[in-house]
Amino acid sequence: MTTTLTSHTTEEVRALLAPPGSALPHELSHGLGGPYHLLFPQRFDANAAAFRQAFADAGVDGRVYFAKKANKAAVFVERAAVAGLGVDVASHGELREALAAGVRGTDLVVTGPAKDDQLLRVAVLHGALVAVDALDELDRVLALADELGRTARVLLRRLPPGQPHSRFGLDDAEMNTALRRCRTEHVDMAGFSFHLSGYDIRERADLAAELVRLCAQARTWGLRADRISVGGGFAVDYVGAEDWRRFQESTRPEHFHKHKAFSGYYPYHSPVAGADALAAMLTTTPAGEESTLAELVRAAGVTLLVEPGRALLDQAGCTVFRVQGVKERDGYDILTVDGSSLSLSEQWFESEFLPDPVLIPADRADIADAGPYPACVGAATCLESDMLTWRKIPFPVRPATGDLLVYLNTAGYQMDSNESPFHELPLPPKVVIEPPTYDSPSARPRWRLDRHP
Question: Which CATH architecture is the domain 41-235+270-306 placed in?
Answer without folding.
Answer: Alpha-Beta Barrel (3.20)
